[in-house]
Design goal:
alpha+beta, five-stranded mixed β-sheet, 16 helices, globular
Length: 490
């Protein structure tokens, strides 16, 4: 089954998976869930070495799915033994769109403290506050924090476009200058891009303009990079020389004191310069100053800055490295919509169907967060496309999105980058099965679910960046790490 014969879309509710029918679970055979956790200590350690060293995440999941002839199976995932003994590595892997959707059925699963699996960094990284991402929807504080996040996004729309375009001007000027200095090597743009993202997001989301603090203006993005890295190192394949990576990076959790000074500077910056947003948290959502500032820092640093830092290089790489004529088509669409007397804004970019499809297709193949987790509230039956399995209360479900989003039952030629995949009526239907934001692209973030509050702002911002690029340039060449040439618009 491919996109020409899609199953019914997932319903827009907090109970997604339990209502879908493609075919109904009652028509599918009940199968004993395959897989194994192996011997104590030995099994988790062996799987850890496969995941980080011998196979890598893609092959780790794909080889086990092929071995068990199932997209649902039990296995282990890092971090694990020896110095992370308080972390349970046992998971139920879900690797097709249908079983993956159960991760977002809040009647069936609990999202408490499972952002990156059973491992949770010390709360010291968030000032001792369990920020919204670690709260389950049944916890009273979740509704307050999620509603607060959605409100600041709504209010930020007034300055979002202005700050984005202003910082993009600075970014592209830097790229052009670097290319002029090194015409053969081009411009390594990642640092400039991160500066751009940080300055734009800080001002738009929190109202705190980095220009108010020379130290933050110069180093704020670096501080966030270190704060992010130190938290996720035990769960992330870095790609340096083995066994050094296993010995020094994946064997224990790194302590907060390594970034405590930087985090305090960021806290002080937000506390002193985001007065309106902090008052909003207090007066309308009942959040303390500490709760507001630490949640703002997480939304800014982990969700927004971290997500864009991973996603945008993939997007630039797809476009700059393309030789199929995609750039010419994007340029034509952008300039047709933004013709004489028509500027670039939220309304006009929403008319750019190919631009948005390229964003969606990049998110499908390169989701910013590759792993999603949820814990079973009670025993329940989970359905893949071809079988039903029993999940036990307390088991941790793990979906590896790069494989889920290559589900051949949903996406035709799933390994290929198809710029037009989400264009037209058929493309619009496929959005029901595009997962990257803790829910389907057609879902609606709310206080009763865990879908990314900024889901729509992420896609529209990426589309604005593409449109801005082709209003400025006729063509660019490069890859995910550098831009070799730019041809100014004629």
């Amino acid at each position: 089954m491919a996109s020409s014969s899609l199953p019914p879309p997932l319903p827009q509710s907090t109970s997604l998976a339990s209502q879908q029918s493609s075919p109904p679970p009652s028509q599918l055979p009940v199968r004993k869930m395959p897989g194994s956790y192996g011997l104590p200590l030995v099994g988790p350690l062996s799987d850890r070495l496969d995941y980080f060293w011998f196979q890598g995440p893609d092959k780790f999941f794909k080889s086990r799915s092929e071995k068990y002839k199932s997209t649902v199976f039990r296995t282990n995932i890092p971090p694990s033994f020896p110095f992370l003994g308080n972390v349970n590595p046992n998971i139920v892997a879900v690797l097709d769109v249908k079983s993956f959707s159960y991760l977002f059925d809040m009647d069936l699963v609990d999202k408490r403290d499972v952002l990156i699996g059973d491992f949770r960094p010390s709360l010291d990284f968030y000032g001792g506050v369990r920020v919204g991402v670690y709260l389950d929807t049944t916890e009273p504080k979740h509704a307050k924090v999620k509603s607060f996040a959605m409100e600041i996004l709504k209010r930020s729309s007034e300055v979002w476009l202005r700050e984005l375009l202003s910082n993009l001007d600075t970014f592209w000027e830097t790229v052009e200058s670097d290319i002029a200095k090194n015409p053969e090597g081009g411009a390594s743009y990642l640092i400039g891009l991160q500066r751009c993202i940080f300055n734009f997001l800080s001002t738009a989301l929190t109202g705190a303009n980095p220009s108010a603090s020379p130290d933050i203006a110069e180093n704020g993005w670096k501080m966030l990079d270190k704060w992010l890295a130190i938290q996720v190192i035990p769960t992330t394949k870095i790609g340096i020389l083995q066994p050094l990576e296993e010995i020094f990076l994946h064997s224990w959790a790194y302590p907060f004191f390594l970034v405590a000074g930087d985090y305090q500077k960021l806290y002080n910056f937000i506390s002193e310069n985001a007065g309106d947003v902090i008052r909003l948290g207090d007066e309308e959502y009942g959040l303390t100053r500490d709760e507001t500032v630490h949640n703002l820092l997480f939304v800014l640093g982990f969700n927004a800055y971290g997500g864009f830092s991973v996603f945008l290089p993939s997007l630039f790489g797809r476009i700059a490295g393309d030789t199929s004529g995609l750039q010419e088509r994007l340029r034509a669409e952008v300039r047709k919509v933004c013709g004489p007397g028509t500027g670039l804004n939220f309304r006009t970019v929403n008319e750019m169907e190919l631009v948005k499809s390229v964003v969606y297709e990049t998110l499908r193949l390169n989701p910013p967060v590759p792993l999603q987790y949820a814990r079973a509230r009670d025993d329940f039956k989970i359905s893949s496309h071809d079988a039903v399995y029993e999940v036990k209360r307390g088991e941790l479900l793990c979906g590896y999105q790069p494989l889920v989003m290559r589900d051949a039952s949903i996406f035709e030629d799933p390994e290929e980058f198809k710029p037009d995949r989400f264009v037209g009526e058929t493309g619009a239907k496929l959005l029901n099965y595009l997962f990257w934001s803790n829910g389907p692209q057609t879902g609606t973030p709310s206080a009763s679910n865990k879908q990314c509050a900024a889901k729509d702002m992420v896609t529209i911002t990426a589309a604005l960046i593409i449109a801005n690029l082709f209003l400025r340039y006729d063509k660019i060449t490069g890859d995910a790490g550098s831009i070799k040439t730019v041809v100014p618009a004629t």
